[in-house]
Amino acid sequence: MSGEAAWPGPLAGLRVLDLTRVLAGPLATQFLGDLGAEILKVEPPGKGDDTRGFAPFVGGESHYFLGLNRNKKSLVIDLRAPEGAEALRRLAATADVLVENFRPGVMDRLGLGWEALSALNPRLIYCAITGFGLSGPLREAPSFDIVTQALTGVLSVNGERGRPPVKLGLPVGDMSGGIFGAQAILAALHERHATGRGRLIDVSLYDGTMALLGYLAQLAFATGADPEPMGNAHPSVVPYGSFPAKDGAIIIACLADGFWPKLCAALGLDDLGADPRLATMAGRRAHRGEIEPRIAAVTPARSVAEWQEALTAADVPHAPILGVRAALAHPHAAARAMVVEVEHPAAGTLRLLGRPVKFPDAPAPQPPLAPPPLLGQHTAEVLRGVGYAEAEIEALRARGVIDRIERP
């Protein structure tokens, strides 16, 4: 950074209590940490976040945990112990945001729910991320990603045409909770500037995933029929999808009418480009059965690389189908700093995904990402910051209220 002072990010000075585990909640707080907030991840005694036990491991650390917990501090506190609950209350008094993803009612039973903590700190923004929300007939039901995908209709539209649907490879159900959770917290922070008060936020994986249906919901409303799996094709856009090449497949996405004649010229299908029936998206959709086989008959003549060259020259949207390793190694990923290296105290040099949001006109670069924390790495440090004396910390540790850790 050439000796230049780092810009911590737009959320610098914000303290977030992170009582989440697995995916949705940790993703939300990781986003906030990327933006400069201080994230205090409070983990249960024993083995901490469930994902710390998910194989494979790097230097004894779970790949899953490493992927969702950068830029955080780890505290091990037993919230079921009265002294642990008191420690959480003292932390909440200093916090701007609390995020939890327990089932509804768990935090209330611990005496650490919204009403109790907002009475202690009226400025606290309290975000509850749950499977089905704080209300409704499924409120108490357990939920995981595949359940959410199934119940929201998302699973039903994924897969190859004419075959049973399959879940998305990405855990979109869980990730929707993280994305919308972070968005809602930022909105509540904006409101707090005007009101001076915090707010309870109710984010559910169910609502978030259903919201991602977007135009597919409108398609169902408009036609009265369920959208069906289309494979790599699109229900409304033609041509759009995967076509065979000599050595694999090439993705072609003709999302606007202006790309159609360019594509036809690149493919050598001038008759299709000149056909007035096919000049509009509606016309091409009506003649999908004619267009897609014609394209699929041409594309096997060249390799993926040759089609990339031809379609780039023609300014037609296209892509090779990259594996995850190839995607991470792509020059554009490097140019966008989407893969970074950090030094982890146990795992050594780690490659992590980079920050997805950039600020080109920031006063200085943001500091490098901090590695995901070791279990309980920051308990004593953070408790000192809220007034605990060394003797108190040692007494809590001796009673197993903090830093009670099971080593594998």
UniProtKB/TrEMBL annotation:
Domain of life: Bacteria
Gene3D superfamilies with a match to the protein in the record: Crotonobetainyl-coa:carnitine coa-transferase, domain 1, formyl-coa transferase, domain 3
SUPFAM superfamilies associated with the record: CoA-transferase family III (CaiB/BaiF)
Record GO terms (molecular function): CoA-transferase activity
InterPro entries per UniProt: CoA-transferase_III_domain, CoA-Trfase_fam_III, CoA-Trfase_III_dom3_sf, CoA-Trfase_III_dom_1_sf
Keywords, in A-Z order: Transferase
Protein name: CoA transferase
